[in-house]
Amino acid sequence: MNLGDLGAEVIKVEKPGSGDDTRSWGPPFIGMESVYFLSVNRNKKSIAVNMKNPKGAKIIKQLAAVSDVFVENYVPGKLAEMGLGYEDISKIAPHIVYCSITGYGQTGPKFQRPGYDSVAAAVSGLLHITGPEEGEPVRPGVAMTDLATGLYAYGAIMAALLQRHKTGKGMHMDCNLLSSQVACLTYIASNFLNCKTEPKRWGTAHASIVPYQAFKTKDGYIVVGAGNDQQFSTVCKILNLSQISSDSRYKNNKERVMNRKELIEVLSARFLEKETTEWLELFEGSGVPYGPINSMQQVFSDPQVLHNELIMEMDHATAGKIAVPGPAVRYSHFEVSRPTPPPLVGQHTVDVLKTALGYKDDTIQELLTSRVITQHELI
């Protein structure tokens, strides 16, 4: 999807009939379309091909020969059984940037296990460190392990294309959920690897910075972070607790971490005395990082979200007007391409075979009749 935002022609290969599994992930649905699927499939053409049929596998090979990038997310070995593994594709398309996305990698003791976000998040330790203090493990509200892997793959593809520009040769990249999430453990992992410190769950708080968490107000929550002593002093002034900033127990971050419980009790009691909007006004312009915990309605009416153009609207073939989060990055000398709506299953099969591969009408009709391919016809 991100590559499509940058102008790439993206051809999504789906199985005839049901297509991508996420098409059935709902409710909610808009008409017959899964909102989950609609959220991450803009800027893609869909072709429906039975790759288990040799004629279908041939189509994929022909597309690879005229494409720059081949992305797949099969359990290792499955595509090779169809003659579509990296070794097979690289013989006919030595230029190909072939990106495999799996649960655990291409080799190793777990490489043939299917990969799902929540399972990989558990195995990688993300769930172990996420949740309320002294509470149960919690899955993040969105599939962060899936998203991180997609973003790692996006960067890897761009890097491989640059390398190919220098060498003329393609390559195979192994992106997987486990490696992506372990890499994203960052300082938590480093604390363990260097100090053998087993982390705990902190809710909204931070293991190494105090205060840096959500505080309950009269009517909601505000998140405040003091990343240095000056910011902590400013927080205390705003809260009318200047005496706290001069207390020897809180003179620096190390002392504040060691005396976390007592400090947070004092700050929490003070935050409960005013409503969230009152605190937001008092923190405005202070130089201290702060913000409310917003609902989705508040997020998408936030003036900065609107200014950053983070609501993208499109007209879908059957669902009508839909809206999704827009691209996160803006470019000074490049306009993100106008989005095309998420496709129906096989919506572009005939078009791709004609324009990309030069198939004739009689050949396409034969493939349609034999169910090697399907084409979604709009009514």
From TrEMBL:
Xref: Pfam families:
CoA_transf_3 (PF02515)
What are the boundaries of the signal sequence?
none
Q: What Gene Ontology molecular-function terms does this entry list? A: succinate-hydroxymethylglutarate CoA-transferase activity
User: Which controlled-vocabulary keywords does the entry list?
Assistant: Transferase
The UniProt record lists the keyword Transferase: yes
InterPro entries of this UniProt entry? CoA-transferase_III_domain (IPR050483), CoA-Trfase_fam_III (IPR003673), CoA-Trfase_III_dom_1_sf (IPR023606)
| Gene3D superfamilies xrefs | Crotonobetainyl-coa:carnitine coa-transferase, domain 1
Q: What GO cellular component term, any one, is given?
A: mitochondrion
Instruction: Indicate the segments annotated as coiled coil, or none if absent.
Output: none
Family membership, please give it.
Belongs to the CoA-transferase III family.
State the name under which the record lists this protein: Succinate--hydroxymethylglutarate CoA-transferase isoform X2
Gene name as annotated: SUGCT
